[in-house]
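User:
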Amino acid sequence: MLRFDRGERLLHWTNAVLFLTVLGTGAALYVPQLSVIVKRRHLVEDIHVYAGILLPIPLTATVLAGRWGRQFRADVRRLNRWNGDDRRWLRTLGRDIKVRLGKFNPGQKLNAAFTAGAIPVMLATGLIMRFPNEWSLSWRTGATFVHDWMFLALAVTITGHILFALNDPLALRSMVRGWIPASWARRHAPRWLEEERPGEEPDELAGQTPSRPARQP
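Assistant: Predicted structure:
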């Protein structure tokens, strides 16, 4: 089954490079021990700033990309849609085996919402810190406080995201190649499976070999 099209995969890996650049350079600026090792602080600071400024561009471009961003916009609607199964999944921390999830689980939905919201916050506070003479002391102090704590929250969130991805090789592979076995969808995203293949019975899907392109939708 096609889980992520080319536009979504390009957006994901572009964002991954930018976020890791921002986090890596931010850590080098924030942690004194790393600053000593890295040196060339002004260059690191410039890379950090420009990578942060670029962060909103791939997301915005994909949203406005017409047919190229059609599936991404559909997935954004899925990420914004919550139902009773999602809430029950959160209450039970994913232990309720009767929960029937869609394409994204509630943890992924929360992660996407936090990351998307963090981008403009980090951009705004970072620009205030970059051009301090244009702002009052209270604005500069507040921007520094928010920027630092948001950086730490993003570091924790992105690290968790990477660890979860490594723990699910099939899901990770779908972000590289686009395709995922129907058996994975049947276990982890049955509502999405029904949405993509209406009318198919679970028994019909049990013997399917998703890796064969001829059997893909």
